[in-house]
Design goal:
By secondary structure, the chain is α+β, with helices and mostly antiparallel strands. The protein folds into two domains: 2-215, Sandwich (Jelly Rolls); 227-332, Homeodomain-like (Arc Repressor Mutant, subunit A). It has helices at residues 16-26, 42-53, 157-161, 175-186, 197-215, 227-239, 248-255, 259-267, 273-289, 299-305, 311-322, 326-332; strands at 2-5, 8-13, 31-34, 60-67, 70-77, 80-84, 97-105, 108-112, 115-119, 123-128, 133-137, 141-149, 168-169. The strands form two sheets. The chain has an eight-stranded antiparallel beta sheet, with helices on both faces. A hairpin with a 2-residue loop joins strand 4 and strand 5. The radius of gyration is 22 Å and the shape is globular. It starts with a strand and ends with a helix.
Length: 336
């Protein structure tokens, strides 16, 4: 059964090939096959897989909603193996993206880039579509998955690519916010097509920022140590971008740690805090300059809203970062 409310896709499948086609259309080409329950014998595995290919026992529910350039899906399914490999990726393939999954029911295993991680209910895990990965669920499962276009990750893309296939609990740092947003979006009964474009853009930006804050702190060799303070630092910075006094010193003071400690924790992520704050501010200023609802607000006022008080400096910084001045950005958006 398939239903659709404009931008919402809601479908139930008893055929694994149809489910594979739906999931591939939402994200990237995938191979999905039934898996036997945990502990099954080889003969039982073969019988189970054959039976499910013939529609015996296989069942999946897929619900998806678009949030600007992001896709949020809720998937419930009987045991399956999901593969992204050479066989599922044709020469003309879909754009690369980062996928983040919130496991809600059932246990699974994620394999990518030589790493393997068990995923339990309440865990968040990321994997990317640019290289092969495998997901194996040997029991019925429910998961919420967000797909983020690779370019939307900006300077954090390569860093996050090194943090895939490492499950982290959704109960720590800023992760509960990610879990709450993903769950809420997947439960929406109406789509976002009628929402003002700036509203969905802001929502998408918030989701990406939270994902970056969540997984940038997961080091390649350690899935948790030191991550919480780094999450807290970036969350503090996100919340205080409007403060012109936001700096390495003020952040260290707010967290009761030394400047060198902040630098050490962020260095593990490849982040220099001053540059990171500047880029975050410029991103939000550019977003506001392109927002029709703010067309009557002056550039200086928008810049001050995000903690930049020097209009001359802003022009140089915007040109260096985006190749255009504030006035050119507004003109390109039809707001000049």
């Amino acid at each position: 059964m398939h239903t659709s409310t404009s931008g919402i896709v809601d479908a139930t499948f008893t055929c694994v090939e149809e489910f594979q086609a739906r999931a591939s259309k939402a994200f990237v080409p995938l191979r999905i096959t039934p898996a036997s329950p945990a502990g099954g014998s080889d003969a039982r595995t073969a019988r189970t897989a054959a039976g499910r290919r013939n529609g015996d026992g296989f069942r999946a529910h897929f619900r998806g909603i678009q949030v600007n350039d992001l896709i949020v899906t809720r998937i419930g399914c009987t045991p399956t193996v999901v593969r992204r490999d050479d066989a599922s990726a044709p020469a003309c393939d879909s754009p690369r993206m980062l996928k983040v999954a919130l496991q809600q029911r059932g246990h699974g295993v994620v394999v990518q880039g030589g790493r393997e991680s068990e995923v339990a209910p309440g865990d968040l895990v990321a994997y990317e579509t640019g290289i092969p990965y495998r997901l194996r669920f040997q029991e019925p499962y429910d998961t919420v998955v967000i797909g983020i276009p690779w370019p939307a990750l900006g300077a954090h893309a390569d860093l996050l690519g090194d943090r895939t296939a490492r499950a982290v609990p959704a109960s720590e740092g800023v992760r509960p916010l990610v879990a709450t947003l993903l769950t809420g979006l997947s439960d929406l009964s109406t789509d976002l097509d009628t929402a003002p474009a700036p509203a969905t853009l802001h929502l998408a930006d918030a989701l990406v920022s939270l994902v970056v804050s969540t997984f940038a702190g997961v080091t390649p060799h350690d899935s948790g140590t030191g991550g919480d303070i780094a999450d807290q630092i970036l969350a503090h910075c996100h919340a205080n971008l409007a403060d012109p006094g936001l700096s390495l010193v003020s952040v260290a003071r707010a967290h009761g740690v030394s400047v060198s400690y902040v630098q050490k924790r962020l260095r593990a992520r490849g982040i220099a805090l001053g540059s990171w704050i500047r880029r975050q501010r410029l991103h939000r200023i550019r977003r506001d300059l392109r927002d029709p609802a703010l067309a009557q607000r002056g550039t200086a006022a928008i810049a001050a809203r995000w903690g930049i008080m020097d209009a001359a400096h802003l022009g140089r910084a915007m040109r260096a970062e985006y190749g255009a001045t504030p006035s050119e950005i507004r003109e390109a958006a039809g707001l000049a």
